[in-house]
Amino acid sequence: xxxxxxxxxxxxxxxxxxxxxxxxxxxxxxxxxxxxxxxxxxxxxxxxxxxxxxxxxxxxxxxxxxxxxxxxxxxxxxxxxxxxxxxxxxxxxxxxxxxxxxxxxxxxxxxxxxxxxxxxxxxxxxxxxxxxxxxxxxxxxxxxxxxxxxxxxxxxxxxxxxxxxxxxxxxxxxxxxxxxxxxxxxxxxxxxxxxxxxxxxxxxxxxxxxxxxxxxxxxxxxxxxxxxxxxxxxxxxxxxxxxxxxxxxxxxxxxxxxxxxxxxxxxxxxxxxxxxxxxxxxxxxxxxxxxxxxxxxxxxxxxxxxxxxxxxxxxxxxxxxxxxxxxxxxxxxxxxxxxxxxxxxxxxxxxxxxxxxxxxxxxxxxxxxxxxxxxxxxxxxxxxxxxxxxxxxxxxxxxxxxxxxxxxxxxxxxxxxxxxxxxxxxxxxxxxxxxxxxxxxxxxxxxxxxxxxxxxxxxxxxxxxxxxxxxxxxxxxxxxxxxxxxxxxxxxxxxxxxxxxxxxxxxxxxxxxxxxxxxxxxxxxxxxxxxxxxxxxxxxxxxxxxxxxxxxxxx
Length: 555
Prior knowledge:
single chain, alpha+beta
C-alpha cells in the first residue's frame, strides 16, 4: 500500500506533467491533518502557483469526457440533472474507475470531512439548540434521498458503461470555486482534443457547454436549509465573462485564514500576468513576503463559524465575522388574532422571518450613547411621507444608536401589533385610497403607518422574548457559555472548589462536566461554535433589554 509521501510525490509529478507550475511553493502535510501549500524558501511575493484552467474539473470537463461525455451530455440535455448533479455523478464514477485520468488527484482528497454531516452521534449532540443542528439534519435527509432516488442508479449505470460493475454507496459531495472564465475559453471555435497517455491535452469546450453557461440563474447567498453555495452554479454577469463552478487541482490545497496573505486570479487568453494563457494563478498580496516553510493561505471570505463549520468543517475562535440567526416561526403567528392581516402586511413589506445579527452590529451600542443631548438626537419622520397622520410620533433620541437592523425592527413591529393596533394601521392606510391620494399603499407607507401606531416598545419586547428563548435552547443540556469555556479548557467537576461552584456555576451546570468524553476535533469545533452563539445571544439580549427600557421610558 502506498504511503502518504508516495501518494504526494506521484500527485506532484502528475501536476507538473499536466502544466501546473509550483513557483517557489510546495504541497505538504499540515500539522493538524490534511495538506496545505507552503513556501519553499524565503519568498518576497509574486506568483506562487499557476494552474491551466483546462485541468480544472468543471461541468464542461464532464461533458467532454472521452469515454462517457456523450452519455453525460444526453442526460444533461434531457434536463434530468443540473450542473452540480453532473459533477457529483462524474466524481463518483471517476473515484471508482481504476484507470481514471483523475485518480492521482482524487486519491489526495480527504475520505472523511469535518462538517457536521460526518459527525458521530455523540459529536452531533453538541450542536443541539443551534441553527446548524436543524440545518444539518435537513441536509442529511435531502442527501440520503438524493442518493437513494437518483445518484445510486445513475452512478452504477455509468460505471457499467466502462466495465466497472461497482455498487455506489455514498455521495461524493464537495464545494468548488466559482471561476470567472472568458467566453473565448468556454466557447472556443476549435474542437476538443482527447486525453492521451495519462496527460491532459489542450481541451476546450463546446456543444452542451452553451446550455450550462447561458442558463438563467441568479446569484444566491448560502442558505443553511437548502443550497450551500455562495453563488449560483453558473452565472453570466457580463457579456465577456462566464462564471463556472469547478475544482482546480493545486490551488484548492490552500487553507483559510481571515487575513490570508495570498489570493487567486484568472489570467486572460494571452497569459498577460502568469505567462500561461487561460490559467488560474495564486499570487501574494501587496507588500507580502513569506518565510521558508510558512503556510500560504487565502481567505474564503468573511464567514462566521456557523458557515465555516457547515461548509468547510472548521471554526475560528473569537471569529470577528460571527453572527446569530433570529427566527420567528410563521406557525406561531397563526395562533394570534388578526394573523391573516399581519401576514398580508408582512408580505406587502417583503419581509422574511429570519434575520442575521452580525458581530459588527455590537460596535454601535445604545448604552454607550446615553449621554447624547435629547433634543439633538430627535428627528421627525414626516419626511418619510406627507400624509396628515405622519410625523406625529417623534423618533426617540436613541434611535440612531439602536444596533438592530431596521428590517428586523419593522417586521417585529408588524408581528407584535395588538388587534387595536392592526385596525389603527388599516385605518391610516385606508386614507390613502379613499382621500385625495387615491393610490395603493407602498412598502414605505405601510412601515410609516405601523410606526405611527406602534412605536418600538412592542417590537423590542418581542425581540427580548426571542433572544431569551434562543439562549434557553442553546443552554439546554449544555449549560452556559462558562460551561463551554471550561469544557474547552479540559476542566471537570473535581477541579472546582465549593466556593467556585457557588459563585460561578450551579450544581446542574457543574454536573455537565461529568461527561468524560474525548475532545475530538469535531467536538471541539461544535463547542467553539456553540459557545460563540451563546456569547452573541447574551450580548444582543442585553442590548435589546437596554433599548426596551429606554423605549418604555420615552413612551
